[in-house]
Amino acid sequence: MATDANYDTFLARAKELSSIIKDNIQADSFFTVISHHDADGLSSASIVGSALSRAKTRFTIRIVEELREDILDEISKTSPEIVIFADIGSGYSDLLSNRLNAKTSLVLDHHPPDVQVPKNIVQLNPHEFGVDGARLVSAAGVCYFVARELSEENKDLSAMAVVGALGDMQDKNEKRALMGLNKLVVEDGVASGSIRVDSDLVCYGRETRPIHRALAYTTTPYLPNLSGREDNCLTLLSTNGIRLKEGDRFRTIADLSQDEKQKLLNAIISYLTSIGFQSSVVLDMVGTVYTLVNEPTGSPTRDAREFSALLNACGRTGNPSIGISVGLGDRKTALEEANNVVANYRKTLASYMEWLTKSPDAIQKLESIWVVRGENQIQDSMTGAFSSILSSAGSLSPDHAIIVLTRSKEGGMKLSARAPAKLLNRGMNLGLALSSISRKYSGFGGGHNVAAGAHIKLEDPSEFLKELDEALLAQMKSDIGS
């Protein structure tokens, strides 16, 4: 278990890395920032970019889905003065050792690192200090603690660090609150006047969407027959006497009184029970909400979870530049474009849910994993988002890890995996298993114990899935359901 001493050592290391960045700023070095394409990665890049911009230094940001030899070769050809890897880099020791040619290279990451860090890399990773990077701090948080040491004015970037942590679903704690080093980030945000913390209904578009749309857009938790179904949500609200409008204006979740919110929860519980689904998922609808108070009321950037969903949509649909622009402060053109991206993204996810509901045979059921075989249905950039939704639903299977598999646009297969807490408590570690097994199939993989992914160079993944299933069972040392 992480202690305050672990945190102090981690923060001291963050100060050391900030000194390296300061030296390069003073030397007028040109910074190359490489980050991941999900919400945490875009938040991380936004934090680093904002800090460098405030320091009036030169930099470029590049967003990638993964580190590959060709990407590192392209970077090395420019003979960069300093490269900062954010939310990516840990676990790529061999690749960074052999392919990266840079004067100074920093890795600010929270994924489990390799045992041996290359000599040409300076790394800040919570796992090296006994801090769980899957639950207690995201990469955005790691970047924030370094940025905070660069300048006191960067404390307002705590808001983006909270966005990153929520994007990585690090709120799976009591009352859906951020814990550990993330809690220190929140405290900075509150102290700097950037963040307000409340207890409320946790719904997508809590302040920005009509009530029925907010319910339909909520996928964490996934509400069977309500998520993605505005028609069913409208019927639910109407039949339970919850007023939709105030005059000509649609009301939002934030407009509801406490009595109305309780009435809404009771209605959802009754509805899910009536159609044969577990109503316990509703418990995840009440929890800690983080409001970014410097953002305009009614903006999708005001609620930190909604902001993270916006960034995730941009990254997953091949529009990371839009997400970065919003993360760096563009609240005009880029935000309008991001809203359009989000709308299309959510339609795509809803179509996947509808397809799976109508195609139960697409689920391959093994002992420790259920595999959604989406080879001809799911875009490879959407496997992570879809697996997260299916995992949060619980109704697909609370007793198995969920894997979404599809064909990669670069050949072979891509898969994303998510594990429920009950299996983690028994020792399941998806990242460890995927990292080890994917190498046997000319691929690569890794990630956290709770969420991981892989690429494998196979047309038929059957043997791979069988071996993965056996490896996960061996980790838990007991049969599923025992």
Write up this protein.
With 482 residues, this protein is α/β, with parallel strands linked by helices. The protein has three domains: 4-190, inorganic pyrophosphatase (n-terminal core), CATH 3.90.1640.30; 201-349, no CATH class; 359-476, Diaminopimelate Epimerase, Chain A, domain 1 (Roll). It contains 17 helices and 15 strands. The strands form four sheets. The protein has a six-stranded mixed sheet, sandwiched between helices. A five-stranded parallel sheet has the order 2-1-3-4-5. It has a two-stranded antiparallel sheet with strand order 6-9. Strand 10 (363-365) and strand 11 form a beta hairpin. Helix 1 packs across helix 5 (139-150) and helix 5 packs antiparallel against helix 6 (158-167).
Topology:
Blueprint lengths: L3 H23 L4 E6 L2 H16 L4 E6 L4 H9 L4 E5 L6 H7 L4 E5 L13 E3 L14 H12 L7 H10 L13 H11 L3 E7 L9 H7 L12 H10 L5 E2 L2 E2 L7 H17 L11 E7 L11 H13 L3 H8 L5 H26 L4 E3 L3 E5 L9 H11 L7 E7 L5 E6 L2 H4 L5 H11 L3 E4 L3 E6 L5 H15 L6
Parallel strand pairs: 1-2, 1-3, 3-4, 4-5, 11-12
Antiparallel strand pairs: 6-9, 7-8, 10-11, 12-13, 13-15, 14-15
Helix pairs in contact: 1-5, 2-5, 2-6, 2-11, 2-12, 5-6, 6-7, 6-11, 8-9, 11-12, 11-13, 12-13, 16-17
